[in-house]
TrEMBL record, chains A, B:
Gene3D superfamilies: 3.40.1280.10
Primary location: cytoplasm
One GO term (biological process): tRNA methylation
Reactions mediated catalytically: pseudouridine(54) in tRNA + S-adenosyl-L-methionine = N(1)-methylpseudouridine(54) in tRNA + S-adenosyl-L-homocysteine + H(+)
Quaternary state and interactors: Homodimer.
Subcellular location: Cytoplasm
Name by which UniProt lists this protein: tRNA (pseudouridine(54)-N(1))-methyltransferase
InterPro entries the UniProt entry points to: Alpha/beta_knot_MTases, TrmY, tRNA_m1G_MTases_N
Species name: Methanospirillum stamsii
Amino acid sequence: MISFLIIGHTASTDASFSLNDLPGAGGRMDLLCRAIGSSLFLSHGIRQNITCDILLLGQPHPGRIIRFSGNEIRNLSPDERNIASFIKKGLAIPAGKKFREAGPGLSCRTGTLADMLTEQKYAVLDESGIDIRKVPDEDLPKNFLLSDNQNFSDDEKNCTAHLPCFSLGPAIVHADHAITLLLNEIDRRESGWI
Amino acid sequence: MISFLIIGHTASTDASFSLNDLPGAGGRMDLLCRAIGSSLFLSHGIRQNITCDILLLGQPHPGRIIRFSGNEIRNLSPDERNIASFIKKGLAIPAGKKFREAGPGLSCRTGTLADMLTEQKYAVLDESGIDIRKVPDEDLPKNFLLSDNQNFSDDEKNCTAHLPCFSLGPAIVHADHAITLLLNEIDRRESGWI
């Protein structure tokens, strides 16, 4: 299993955010939707071995985590609006400290970045890291942390300073593009294309 | 300059398609929006050296081409809804056989795949091609043709059979993901990362 965790610094935690304004009222929810799409979708199917978590830090309940599980999710389409409707479903259930199911392959909990880092070992995807193509297979972890359009905050930097950090290329790209590039590198290694 | 041409086999050519239903009423317009986004957006800016054309083959006027020019486009945001609103603007102007401006960096014309192939030399991005990482710099063209979620039709295959064909990896991915992978390969070569 491979997992992603994407921080949405301004992403709404109010289940009633408008599907007609994902960047504004949703707090750049569009970006998170595309990141979920990139992590889960193949041309004609869903990647079964992926879990994609988004950490929503916007108001009114900063610190909600929504999990999409590729092997269980049903009826997800790759357009932003459809993915956002799943996020709304996740936000609509009462959230506690453990993941609670909001539907097949969709669950929600409360939590912080520090919580997630305690529970699982991550590598950071960031332009400051080592070129992913040069990382030996045995050093490539299975869990990856990304930020949205904002840089990591000082607190987040302190939390993640000890983590391995990988770069996908010379250009600074959106989180969803970084995920596509990482999965391609993993696909290639697993299929002997390198 | 690098250019993309993406065929939207069912994409609406009626400027009044609903922004609330890009996959259905728009005829998988969501997919084209993401392809435009992947071709143009960096994390904090627009790729100035990219032109992205979409060939819309849906009703009521199949054969509209909308061009997004990275060096001139203004106020474009990466969310599907915003990009779709530019496509609507492009479709709203009267179209002739030559590109006509619908706004800065946005233009529209009528045309077919055969027209485009006559005017410019393309390579096809398709899973059946040669691994892009193995293509020498001198064999890497500047113009790339992709299909949407549908395979190339028989007519399109006949038109493109003589073109070089490149694959991005072992997994069959969405058009927008293929564009991201291709641009990363070009970025790496131009920056000496390979």
